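Fold this: Ring-cleaving dioxygenase MhqO
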Amino acid sequence: MTLQTAGIHHITAFARDPQANVDFYAGVLGLRLVKKTINFDAPEVYHLYFGDQAGSPGTIITFFPWPNSRKGTIGGGQVGITSYAVPVGSLPFWEQRLASFGIETAKVSRFAEQYLQFTDNEGLRLELVERAEGAQSQWTFGGITSDQAIKGFGGAVLFSVNPQRTMNALEQLLGLEKVAEDTAYARFRSQGDIGNVIDVPLAAMSRGSDGAGTVHHIAWRASDFPQHADWRSTVETYGYHPTPIVDRQYFNALYFREAGGILFEIATDPPGFARDEPADQLGSRLMLPDWFEPHRTQIEANLLPIEVRALEGKSV
């Protein structure tokens, strides 16, 4: 093993209501809607990207909000919990903010860290953890300051139908280091300072089912295009069957399903989200790849209108 990923590039999940999705991730959590585009394989569905001010790798959660889609079941073969890192000292702010929007929270501990767990409007499992590492977000919205704003991913909890095989892939294929284990979890760490802590429950999970409120895949970082090609060869050498490299406009991607059932992607850090609109206008209009541009009028007519809006919680 010579390649090592810096950590999570992005996480992609399913949702139903696009406006409710924007309200939760931009309005409640204060993330920036950095790209409003479509699912290239199903152009009648949005593909929405939320992250820090630039949509930096390690901060990006993306959604396919498909109205009237089925409800999913969280289980083996999925990211079970998506972890967000917030600045040290900010968890009380977040506990109060979430309560002001009627969002129930629970405090749990793993490996001597305190987490604030909750679900989004679709039932997707999320948690916040205070971390000193990682740059503070410069995106401020809805009364959330840089001292409180989500930095990006703290990491993820992977639910596997075969934990040992999943842990082998993390360590031997992706180059993460196993740093701790207790009776319930093993912890792995990548070389980056964001999106870098992965916990795997030691007990196998019953398989989940895709649908609203579940994660579709987790993507790992490749530093550039040549390294991405090397990753594809490495994945093949390890015994998996990666897809061809796909141009996703804002990164190149390849996909494979690891032996614990989780769909892994490896995505390039470049070219990023400012390739087709100015950095100060990210997410302001529907962006389409060239091959869909002739059909813009029809595509826009089939999509529900959405807007980013600041929300006011109730006093608690």
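The two ends are 52 Å apart (CA to CA). The longest strand covers residues 42-51.
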